[in-house]
């Protein structure tokens, strides 16, 4: 058990050795680096809680240059050590995000106090961030109490705080993106961006410039520099959805980024460095794609890290009522009106197969909610959209205590008109055709029933 992990960046070997042994004697785990490049390399394998940074480092020996690199160490406290103990430099360092400033020669007792305070504050900040993230979002968005969902929550909590790469696999619509967002929201990167890239949705010839950005003049139409999604994700999480659909030439380029942590914008000469956590997702069988030569084996092993598998809804049917309740609450909040399922509708949802998983369940609920009236979804509403599932046509359902025929006919007309308009995205001519009416006839009914369309 250590008191914390410290990276000491200083070009003087004697000072490095001395300070390392002070700190190790105080129970810290310490690694050292002689310049910024070595420091960045160390951080890929050593997740330091704090950085002690000399401002005058080779090859430039320019404090301003070192200060400009502070952003690379984002989210960790940095304590500046320098012989240049000028007031302005101290203020600059703090303004640019350093935690504190100590002049050389360093007083070991003072250093111990400053480090302890910085680590305490850092720990509190991290805990607060994680608490906020988990109470607001994170795991709370992951609905389900089945054993696979509980196991998934436990894994997410364990893996999220690390920077390990994660591959989320599972059938379509089972929540791979929700899981990936939870990993981000429970990580120390939670207040940085979560950038989602659907690798199959971006045309192959645009994927490179979308990911890496481009510089002005790189190709026709590139009239100014544009950062890519990789740069936008800097400090945060890059989510590569449907990674199995990434074209092979792009896989080679991604592999280089993952190996070296650097890339060039399209048409650019300046090497760019990024710090992102990579989460990938796929519903394809990647080992199979590797065998077929459609996915690079070396990339597969680079992105695999830890694999999390989401489970089809058919294997956790006990989650269906919880999911329905969750989506009804969401809908009620958005519409400002309480929405419920009556018992016949609930049993229809519970009995049905959901090959499209949670996405299909959610979409189906939303579509029947659109035709429901008076805040209750009934089997009659469902039958309108899924007539094959009703034993008798909805219009013929006669309640035991009778009904007012004109009233029932009007209600049915209203529902069918709304459904036709929803299906045609509000196109009245098409909706009229679906209903076997003239456009004029439909407009009259819309007017008579005062339907807002
Ligand atoms: N456990 C869950 N709790 C609440 N909502 C969920 C859960 N899982 C999935 N959803 C919802 O279901 C829909 C589909 O989820 P998501 O996009 O994460 O699935 P996916 O597995 O990434 O799908 P695809 O493979 O098609 O990209 C989203 O609207 C999401 O909010």
Automatic annotation (TrEMBL):
<keyword id="KW-0804">Transcription</keyword>
<keyword id="KW-0805">Transcription regulation</keyword>
<dbReference type="InterPro" id="IPR002197">
    <property type="entry name" value="HTH_Fis"/>
</dbReference>
<dbReference type="GO" id="GO:0005524">
    <property type="term" value="F:ATP binding"/>
</dbReference>
<dbReference type="InterPro" id="IPR025944">
    <property type="entry name" value="Sigma_54_int_dom_CS"/>
</dbReference>
<dbReference type="InterPro" id="IPR027417">
    <property type="entry name" value="P-loop_NTPase"/>
</dbReference>
<dbReference type="GO" id="GO:0006355">
    <property type="term" value="P:regulation of DNA-templated transcription"/>
</dbReference>
<dbReference type="Pfam" id="PF00072">
    <property type="entry name" value="Response_reg"/>
</dbReference>
<dbReference type="GO" id="GO:0000160">
    <property type="term" value="P:phosphorelay signal transduction system"/>
</dbReference>
<dbReference type="Pfam" id="PF25601">
    <property type="entry name" value="AAA_lid_14"/>
</dbReference>
<feature type="domain" description="Response regulatory">
    <location>
        <begin position="5"/>
        <end position="119"/>
    </location>
</feature>
<feature type="domain" description="Sigma-54 factor interaction">
    <location>
        <begin position="142"/>
        <end position="370"/>
    </location>
</feature>
<dbReference type="Pfam" id="PF00158">
    <property type="entry name" value="Sigma54_activat"/>
</dbReference>
<dbReference type="InterPro" id="IPR003593">
    <property type="entry name" value="AAA+_ATPase"/>
</dbReference>
<keyword id="KW-0238">DNA-binding</keyword>
<dbReference type="InterPro" id="IPR009057">
    <property type="entry name" value="Homeodomain-like_sf"/>
</dbReference>
<dbReference type="InterPro" id="IPR001789">
    <property type="entry name" value="Sig_transdc_resp-reg_receiver"/>
</dbReference>
<keyword id="KW-0597">Phosphoprotein</keyword>
<dbReference type="InterPro" id="IPR025943">
    <property type="entry name" value="Sigma_54_int_dom_ATP-bd_2"/>
</dbReference>
<protein>
    <submittedName>
        <fullName>Acetoacetate metabolism regulatory protein AtoC</fullName>
    </submittedName>
</protein>
<dbReference type="InterPro" id="IPR011006">
    <property type="entry name" value="CheY-like_superfamily"/>
</dbReference>
<dbReference type="GO" id="GO:0043565">
    <property type="term" value="F:sequence-specific DNA binding"/>
</dbReference>
<dbReference type="InterPro" id="IPR002078">
    <property type="entry name" value="Sigma_54_int"/>
</dbReference>
<keyword id="KW-0067">ATP-binding</keyword>
<keyword id="KW-0547">Nucleotide-binding</keyword>
<feature type="modified residue" description="4-aspartylphosphate">
    <location>
        <position position="54"/>
    </location>
</feature>
<dbReference type="Pfam" id="PF02954">
    <property type="entry name" value="HTH_8"/>
</dbReference>
<dbReference type="InterPro" id="IPR058031">
    <property type="entry name" value="AAA_lid_NorR"/>
</dbReference>
């Amino acid at each position: 058990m250590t008191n914390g992990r410290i990276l000491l960046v200083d070009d003087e070997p004697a000072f490095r050795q001395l300070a390392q042994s002070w700190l190790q004697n105080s129970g810290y785990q310490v690694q050292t680096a002689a310049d910024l490049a070595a420091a960045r390399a160390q951080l890929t394998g050593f997740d330091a809680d704090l950085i002690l940074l000399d401002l005058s480092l080779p090859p430039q020996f320019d404090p301003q240059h070192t200060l400009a690199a502070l952003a690379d160490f984002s989210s960790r406290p940095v304590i500046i050590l320098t012989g240049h103990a000028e007031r302005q430099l101290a203020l600059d360092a703090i303004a640019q995000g350093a935690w504190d400033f100590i002049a050389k020669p360093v007083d070991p007792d003072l250093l111990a106090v400053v480090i302890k305070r910085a680590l305490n504050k850092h720990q509190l900040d991290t805990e607060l961030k994680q608490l906020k993230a988990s109470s607001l979002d994170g795991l709370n968005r992951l609905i389900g109490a089945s054993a696979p969902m509980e196991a998934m929550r436990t894994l997410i909590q364990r893996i999220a705080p690390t920077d390990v790469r994660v591959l989320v696999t599972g059938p379509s619509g089972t929540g791979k993106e929700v899981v990936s967002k939870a990993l981000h929201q429970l990580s120390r990167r939670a207040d940085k961006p979560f950038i989602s890239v659907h690798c199959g949705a971006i045309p192959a010839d645009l994927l490179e410039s979308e990911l890496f950005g481009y510089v002005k003049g790189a190709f026709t139409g590139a009239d100014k520099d544009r950062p890519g999604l990789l740069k936008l994700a800097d400090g945060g999480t890059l989510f590569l959805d449907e990674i199995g659909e990434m074209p092979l030439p792009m896989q080679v380029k991604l592999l280089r980024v993952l190996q070296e942590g650097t890339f060039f914008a399209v048409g650019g000469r300046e090497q760019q460095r990024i710090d992102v956590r990579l989460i990938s997702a796929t519903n394809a069988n990647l080992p199979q794609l590797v065998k077929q030569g459609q996915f690079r084996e070396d990339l597969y092993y680079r992105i695999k890290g830890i694999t999390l598998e989401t489970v089809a809804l058919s294997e956790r049917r006990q989650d269906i009522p919880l999911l329905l309740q969750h989506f009804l609450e969401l809908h009620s909040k958005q519409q400002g009106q309480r929405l419920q399922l009556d018992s016949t509708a609930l049993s229809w949802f519970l009995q049905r197969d959901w090959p499209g998983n949670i996405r299909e369940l959610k979409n189906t609920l939303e579509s029947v909610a659109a035709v429901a009236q008076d805040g209750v979804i009934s089997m009659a509403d469902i039958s309108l959209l899924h007539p094959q599932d009703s034993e008798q046509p909805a219009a013929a359902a006669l309640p035991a205590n009778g009904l007012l025929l004109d009233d029932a006919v009007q209600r049915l007309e209203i529902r069918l008109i709304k459904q036709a308009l929803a299906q045609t995205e509000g196109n009245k001519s098409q909706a009229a055709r679906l209903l076997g009416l003239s456009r004029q006839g439909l407009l009259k009914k819309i007017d008579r029933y005062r339907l807002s369309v």
